[in-house]
């Protein structure tokens, strides 16, 4: 029996996959593990009644596994690893937090209206740290094999690319060669191509936050 997963629909296009990086993380995990699943696209502006009944907080993603709905992408990934251990996507503990500060640094820089507030440098420092790690341990964060930490980071790097390119005409320096190879590896995977949101929806998703 296929699992069921509820993820964000695109704003204004309820039939199209939306721009939530945490929803994509859940979908990537299902795809990489080749687990049959049914996707429900949830219009967050008009959440369906059945969805609110099973998930009163109304957040996405949520996964139905063993007849229970589970929320939070961390918990979802953990449950899937437990129930479907092959192929393993478990990240060795010593690598589990690599790159974990990039998304926060990206959001701060994206929203920044003050070029001298240090937010650009803070993001560059995090990206350089990842590049250095990949040089020593790559091509993926834990070595030769993709693991959960990569599937968590991939959607966030996609948002970083699209949103900073659009709103700030900014891109990651070419000198971070290991980072760029890593990003290409992730973005070219079949699982990523199948689960990524269109760039226009990523831009639309960030616009209210940037213009706030």
UniProtKB/TrEMBL annotation:
InterPro entries, sorted: DHAR1/2/3/4, Glutathione-S-Trfase_C-like, Glutathione-S-Trfase_C_sf, Glutathione_S-Trfase, Glutathione_S-Trfase_N, Thioredoxin-like_sf
Similarity remark: Belongs to the GST superfamily. DHAR family.
Signal sequence coordinates: none
Every GST N-terminal domain range: 10-88
Catalytic activity: RX + glutathione = an S-substituted glutathione + a halide anion + H(+); L-dehydroascorbate + 2 glutathione = glutathione disulfide + L-ascorbate
Organism: Fagus sylvatica
Keywords: Detoxification, Glutathionylation, Oxidoreductase, Transferase
GO MF annotations, alphabetized: glutathione dehydrogenase (ascorbate) activity; glutathione transferase activity
Record-given protein name: Dehydroascorbate reductase
Organism ancestry: Eukaryota, Viridiplantae, Streptophyta, Embryophyta, Tracheophyta
PROSITE patterns the record matches: GST_CTER, GST_NTER
Domain GST C-terminal: residue ranges: 66-212
GO terms for biological process, alphabetical: acquisition of seed longevity; ascorbate glutathione cycle
Pfam families linked: GST_C_2, GST_N_2
Keyword Cell inner membrane found: no
SUPFAM superfamilies named among the record's database cross-references: GST C-terminal domain-like, Thioredoxin-like
């Amino acid at each position: 029996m296929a699992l069921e997963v509820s993820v964000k629909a695109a704003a204004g296009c309820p039939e199209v996959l939306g721009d939530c990086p945490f929803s994509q993380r859940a979908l990537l995990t299902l795809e990489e593990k080749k687990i049959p699943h049914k996707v429900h696209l949830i219009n967050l502006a008009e959440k369906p009644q059945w969805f609110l009944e099973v998930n009163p907080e109304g957040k996405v993603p949520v996964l139905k596994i063993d007849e229970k709905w589970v929320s939070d992408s961390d918990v979802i990934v953990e449950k899937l690893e437990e129930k479907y251990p092959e192929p393993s996507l478990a990240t060795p503990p010593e690598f589990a937090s690599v790159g974990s500060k990039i998304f926060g640094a990206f959001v701060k820089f994206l929203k920044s209206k003050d070029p001298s507030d240090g937010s650009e440098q803070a993001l560059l420092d995090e990206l350089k740290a990842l590049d250095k790690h990949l040089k020593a341990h790559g091509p993926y964060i834990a070595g030769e094999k993709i693991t959960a930490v990569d599937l968590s980071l991939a959607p966030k790097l996609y948002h970083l690319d699209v949103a900073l390119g659009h709103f700030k005409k900014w891109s990651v320096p070419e000198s971070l060669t290991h980072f760029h190879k890593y990003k290409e590896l992730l973005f070219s995977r079949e699982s990523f191509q199948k689960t990524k949101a269109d760039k226009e929806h990523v831009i639309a998703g960030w616009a209210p936050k940037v213009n706030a």
